[in-house]
């Protein structure tokens, strides 16, 4: 649903889960930007009812409801939160990444997040970890993490030095910490990514949005 003149005077409602890395991306942006919001939990990720996802036909989260307007997906939501921020911040969005290194890092961070979701949903469906159909996504995830570990330092160095926040760094932090939280795979061997996450975790926004399972 769209609205040419969305209401930005009242607090929006974020629909998602405290255990979701895509939801955490939005929550970190909200915290960094000083935007208040109500939080509504999606009770069951196995639901195939779009109503449980605030009408999102993709059956995915997060979703942001702002009066009569609904925003689907973390990136859309973060952009709307930036428009609602009480003060302008120096934000680095995916379209600002015009060199191959940073653009590829952004692509792989988001692809890895989506691949992890697919693996978790397979696990919830009772698919054995050694199922042949999971071999490719499992290998893909490992390949992407290795690439990100090899390149995260250089990618961060290539970002504008005067930035307050970048979508790339938030996504990468939420991805790596989520892998450990959901026990998808250990990440301690990815030293560069671990060092980055240890540094980013010192931010108040990261500390305020720690992963947890919402009460039923």
TrEMBL record:
Gene3D superfamilies: 1.20.1050.10, Glutaredoxin. It holds the Pfam family GST_N_2. Residues 20-83 form the GST N-terminal domain. It comes from the Bacteria. Signal peptide: none annotated. This is GST N-terminal domain-containing protein. It comes from Sorangium cellulosum (Polyangium cellulosum).
